[in-house]
Write a structure and sequence with these properties.
1 helix, 62 residues, alpha+beta
Length: 62
């Protein structure tokens, strides 16, 4: 599994956008994005749309 850094841009009805950073372990980048969007939808009901702004694989130190 890799650790991914995901930055989502969240927008809602008439409000300012918000940027939501996530660090998640997942088997693929697609899975990491899916998890991040799911968490954002559950925790930020004021936002309606979540767009990926950045995705990076994080290096782990040993």
């Amino acid at each position: 599994m890799q650790r991914y850094y995901i930055l989502l841009k969240a927008t809602g009805a008439g409000g300012w956008p918000g940027w939501l950073p996530y660090r998640l372990d997942a088997a693929s980048a697609e899975q990491a994005v899916e998890k991040a969007k799911e968490q954002a939808e559950n925790h930020y009901p004021e936002y309606e749309k979540f767009e990926v702004q950045a995705i990076e694989i994080e290096r782990r130190s040993k």
